[in-house]
Design goal:
4 helices; alpha+beta
């Protein structure tokens, strides 16, 4: 369920001194704003990289995915 998924992701993000890779299709602003970097894939290729707010300001592929998911 969504609450458990959010709790697990928050717990992973709270671990210091560890590189974490999270693969998700859930585009939750509260969690994604905490990521150091977001890598956006499209058709098996990297389409964009950046922090959440930077990707949203660019209004490119990630922006369109985020808005469709809301």
């Amino acid at each position: 369920d969504n609450q458990t998924a959010e709790s697990v992701t928050s717990a992973i993000l709270a671990i210091d001194g560890l590189t974490r890779i999270i693969v998700t299709h859930k585009l939750d602003e509260r969690l994604m704003a905490r990521y150091d970097a977001i890598i956006v894939m499209h058709n098996g290729e990297i389409a964009e990289t950046g922090r959440f707010h930077d990707l949203m300001e660019r209004k490119e592929y990630f922006y369109s995915l985020y808005n469709v998911s809301q």
